[in-house]
Amino acid sequence: MDPIISIRNLSKTYATGLEALRNVDLDIDRGEIFALLGPNGAGKTTLIGIVCGIVNATAGTVSVDGFDIVRDYRKTRARIGLVPQELTTDAFESVLHTVTFSRGLFGKPADPAHIERVLRALSLWDKRDARIMTLSGGMKRRLLIAKALAHEPDILFLDEPTAGVDVSLRQDMWNLVRRMRETGVTIILTTHYIEEAEDMADRIGIINGGRLILVEDKASLMLKLGRKRLVLHLAEPLDAVPPALAAYDLQLGAGGCELIYTYDTRKERTGITALLNDIREAGIGFRDLHTTQSSLEDIFVDLVKRSQ
């Protein structure tokens, strides 16, 4: 199946000399949820801006559903819904009017039933006659999503959609995203809440310094790059790791009551058996032990450090 978005050799250098993107290649599959992660200033918003036709690329090409974003601007833009980071709305308009107007901007015929469905899904129907200036920050964020969905796009970009949003609103938004994916909408999101990407995304892309340093299926990424930790709950607390165990690079936790060993699951030998024997020989007793898998956040931090 052809990708719905295809990016080749994409670069962007601003007039200030800032090189925001460097030779980015990326294909996004139809109907997937793709999470683009990176620290502040990594190039995430610039990349989204170019695909959405807001920022001009310095070099490279982008096609959306087979159409070039420059030659076929109207066709590509009509297929895209964008939820930006900034809360930019006309404060004096009503919720219903601004969402209806957004649909008309794309040449779509009036469809009050669709607009009502979108507003109800985002818990905005009861606020349909309210002026935007009276809405809370969370409601304004929902309104941006409603505007992006007004013209029934095939692709939805969510740029930090839950920034400053409370937990309840965040859950409602992600439930809506899941329902949209079920109808075939392709979703690309950036987020500072890495646990959201871990929970929601099919694939993960990590960008840093304008370079795309990794694109991987989420499950494969967790399996390939994830590490495990063996945590031993000690019978008596330790002030320091004994010199006899220095080779294992152990860490103390919980005020000296835990001994933590990090190991690579890809290696043929984990070293756990030898470690437990050496712990007993050192006269250290433990009451219990358990293992934990490294999170996507651990992997992200490690990859970003390596790319610097």
Strand line-up in the sheet with most strands: 6-7-8-3-9-10
Oligomer: single chain
- How far the N terminus sits from the C terminus, by CA atoms, comes to 35 Å
The figure for the number of domains is: 2
> Helix content range of the residues, please?
25-40%
CATH superfamily of the largest domain: P-loop containing nucleotide triphosphate hydrolases
CATH architecture of the largest domain: 3-Layer(aba) Sandwich
Outline, from the CA principal axes? elongated
Mean of pLDDT: 86
Unreliably modeled segments: none
What is the CATH third-level topology name of the largest domain?
Answer: Rossmann fold
Number of helices: 10
Word description of this protein:
With 308 residues, this protein is an alpha/beta fold. It has two domains: 5-222, Rossmann fold; 226-307, 2-Layer Sandwich (Alpha-Beta Plaits). The protein is 33% helix and 28% strand. It has helices at residues 44-51, 73-78, 95-105, 112-121, 137-149, 167-182, 194-200, 218-225, 272-281, 296-307; strands at 5-13, 19-28, 33-37, 59-64, 67-68, 80-83, 155-159, 186-190, 203-208, 211-217, 227-234, 251-253, 258-264, 286-293. The longest helix is centred in the middle third of the chain and has 16 residues, at 167-182. The two termini are 35 Å apart. 31% of the residues are buried.
